[in-house]
Amino acid sequence: MIKRVPQTQKIHYDIRDLRAVCELARQGGFKHAANALAITPSALSRRVAKLEEVIGGLIVNRTTRSIALTALGRRLVTRCEPLLRELDESVDESSRIARGMEVAMISVLRQLPRNVRIMKAVRHAAINVSRTTPLIALRTKID
């Protein structure tokens, strides 16, 4: 039995449960989703049930042969997938910055307004990207 959560109460959830539901939606079944998450199908089922309990509504209609997201489940997945992707990208970017891999790009981006002003002063500008070197060369032609 799923109990309803009062609207004024803050909902506490586990992000791994959201990831589990999104993976279940992508894979279309407990077995494949569980494999992708490296957990058992019963652990995945418990994660889904836990999130349903926290939310206060069914996310997945289960039968012995198939699963289908409810309207609530479809809406949740539609809203959460891009947010989870963005969250992952933010953490990855922060990790690269912490390891010094993004420092050069950040300094280039900080100088971008100055570089744009310079480029506007030049009538013809072309940016060449070489496949053999990671450097970008700015070739200008001033009339």
Poorly predicted residue ranges: 129-143
Query: What portion of residues is helical?
Result: 55-70%
Strand percentage, roughly?
Answer: 5-15%
The CATH class of the largest domain, by name, is: Mainly Alpha
Rg result: 24 Å
Strands, total number: 4
Instruction: Please give the CATH architecture of the largest domain.
Output: Orthogonal Bundle
CATH superfamily of the largest domain: Winged helix-like DNA-binding domain superfamily/Winged helix DNA-binding domain
Number of domains: 2
Strand order of the largest sheet: 1-2
Q: What about the largest sheet?
A: 2 strands, antiparallel
The helix/strand class is alpha+beta
What's the SSE pattern?
A: HHHEEHHHEE
- Average predicted confidence as pLDDT: 79
The number of helical segments is 6
Q: Globular, elongated, flat, extended or rod-shaped: what is the shape?
A: elongated
Key terms:
elongated; 4 strands; alpha+beta; two-stranded antiparallel sheet; 143 residues; 6 helices; Arc Repressor Mutant, subunit A; disordered C terminus; 2 domains; 13% strand
